[in-house]
Amino acid sequence: MSKKPQELIELSSIDKDIDSYTPQLELLEKKIARSQEKIDDAKEEIAGISSSIEENATKISSFNIQISELATQLKSSEKKSKEISTEKEMRALSLEDDIAREKITFANEEINRLSEANEKKNEILEELNSELVKLEAKQSEINSEAVSQKEAIEKSKAELFATREAKSISIDQKILSFYEKIRRWAGNTAVVPVRKQACYGCYIKINDKTYSEVIKSSEIVTCPHCGRILYIESEIAEA
Fold this sequence. Notes:
The protein is built from six helices and four strands.
């Protein structure tokens, strides 16, 4: 194979290796994001339950104040009952007392209900806080691993960039510019093999003349359909 096509094949291979790290980095970021999302969800649930517990506690406090006021009202009624002289006043006072007792009963029932609810919520809250500690520990572990992997990737990328730079210097600048121009739109398919006499970039069969030129490998040959740089894989060339 001529030096020109071979140089571009090697350069294309380096570019592919460099770009192959992008999905790896994206995967690491997604892993970190998923872990953080679990932590955020747990914190949100904890905040919601904590708010509900506080709301119930406020209601319990309100009911206790109401009970205290109603108890004072009943004591006052006892004094009033001694001063009442008519049956009508007695019935009215008795009705007020009955309503007050019903309110006290309802308030006590609500206090019990809310207290039981808060007891269960506190149990759930304890479990969630325990789970949050585990999630945060896991997140710390993931972050540590990610930092280590990113450092390794960046080191490998730096080595590849250095190799690419050295390779680029040795290539004719017109040829390099031509390759870069194709790569801007074709990405890592700028240089593709020919298999079964078809371009493996656009998958369209090339004519015999072009195919013959690719086999010779004396010059850079592009696909007449898509414009990608073509080459014959070594085992096919040998055959």
